[in-house]
Every structure is written in C-alpha cells, then in structure tokens.
C-alpha cells in the first residue's frame, strides 16, 4: 500500500522578512505597503519586493442548519464588489461578521446569527480556517456550521447605522447543494461551507438528531 507523507510547507514564518511597513491608507479598512524578502526554493533569498496588502481584520462565518427540517439559513444582501455582475450584485451568503478585540469565534458566530437572521444556535462545528485572497489580503476567515433553534425566516435584519439590509432565507439542504453544483453560489465562504456539507452533512445530521 502507498504510504502517504503529510504535507507541510517547505519554509516557515521565519523564512520571510518584512523590511519596511508603511500604512498608505487607514479607515474602516487599511492598505499597507510592504517591502519584504523571502527564501527561494532554489536556494538563497529573493530580491526585496514591494507588495500592497489590504487589511480588514479577521472574520467568522456560520452556516445555520436546522437538522430536523433539513433547512439551511442564508442571508441575501447587496455587495458593492459585485456591481460588475451582469445578473445581480445581491448575494446569498452565510451569516458573517468581523472579530472584535477580545471576542471568541463562538461569540461572534452567535452574535452575528442573532443580529443578521434573528437566529439562535445551540451547537457549533468548525468547517474550515482559510485566507480568501492571500495574494492581496491578510484577512483570515473561520467558518462554522451551527445547529438552529429559531430563525427569522422571511424577515429583514441588520444594523441600519451600518447600512445593513439583510433578507433571511430558509433553503432545503438538497436545493442548496443543487445550487452549488449548478454554479449558482458565487461567494467563497458559502461555497466552502456547502462543499463541506456535501461531504460531512449526513454524518453530522445523524449525530445532531441522536442528541
């Protein structure tokens, strides 16, 4: 039988050096200009490079799931980055929010579920930790699936002072997975959560229902 060797990166964090860091813009988000160098696979170090990095902090996203009704809770909202889309800049997404200093991921998941979808959760399972665009952005997203107790299906939620306008949807799991396969889910964290659910959903549903 083939023996598989677990992958690990060739280099560590110590093999990249930031030579200079300049904050070009600082508002709700920040843009940082870096001068850096890193080790090369062929040996030695790279020449100094200049890269701009978008910094927005880390985020937590959660896929609320009612295992009894086998329905998933999503929010629909406007996204200015998708104005280029000829169909619609409104997206069907997971509940998500930024992590404030001192907050745990579970606190963020439960707070955002309540604020964005009037949704209460009693269990959380980690799906994935990932960088959505590490070539340009320092943000890390931690994604969860949460067991739903109640949800504001069909209601509009969000903080008006933050210009949030969120419509809450309940979609059967089988329909959400059909949308996934039909390329009808167009944002990364929702894609990742549904791909995970397609692989692990049945086992998790059996576990939750048995509890």
What topology does this entry show?
Blueprint: E1 16-26, E2 30-38, E3 49-55, E4 59-66, E5 71-78, E6 90-93, E7 95-98, H1 105-117, E8 120-130, E9 141-150, E10 156-157, E11 166-172, H2 173-181, H3 188-210
What would you say this structure looks like, in words?
By secondary structure, the chain is α+β, with helices and mostly antiparallel strands. Helix content is 21%, strand content 38%. The chain is built from three helices and eleven strands, in the order βββββββαββββαα. It has helices spanning 105-117, 173-181, 188-210, and strands at residues 16-26, 30-38, 49-55, 59-66, 71-78, 90-93, 95-98, 120-130, 141-150, 156-157, 166-172. The strands form two sheets. Strands 4, 5, 6, 7, 8, 9, 10 and 11 form an eight-stranded mixed sheet that branches. It has a three-stranded antiparallel sheet with strand order 1-2-3, with no helix packed on it. Strand 1 and strand 2 (30-38) form a beta hairpin. The model has no long low-confidence stretch (mean pLDDT 95).
């Amino acid at each position: 039988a083939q023996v598989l060797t677990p992958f690990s990166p060739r280099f560590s964090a110590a093999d990249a050096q930031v030579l200079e860091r300049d904050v070009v813009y600082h508002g709700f988000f920040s843009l940082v200009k870096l001068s850096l160098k890193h080790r090369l696979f062929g040996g030695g170090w790279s020449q100094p490079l200049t890269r701009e990095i978008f910094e927005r902090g880390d985020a937590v996203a959660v896929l609320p799931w009612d295992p009894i009704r086998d329905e998933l809770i999503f929010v629909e909202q406007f996204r200015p980055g998708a104005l280029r889309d000829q169909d619609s800049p409104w997206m069907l997404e997971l509940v998500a929010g930024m992590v404030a200093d001192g907050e745990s991921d579970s606190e963020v998941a439960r707070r955002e579920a309540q604020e964005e979808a009037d949704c209460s959760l009693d269990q959380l399972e980690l799906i994935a930790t990932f960088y959505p665009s590490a070539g340009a952005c320092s943000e890390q997203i931690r994604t969860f699936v949460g067991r739903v107790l109640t949800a504001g299906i069909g209601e509009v939620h969000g903080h008006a002072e933050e210009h949030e306008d969120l419509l809450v949807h309940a979609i059967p799991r089988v329909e959400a997975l059909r949308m996934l396969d039909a390329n009808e889910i167009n944002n990364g964290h929702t894609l990742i959560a549904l791909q995970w659910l397609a692989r692990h959903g049945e086992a998790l549903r059996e576990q939750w229902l048995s509890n």
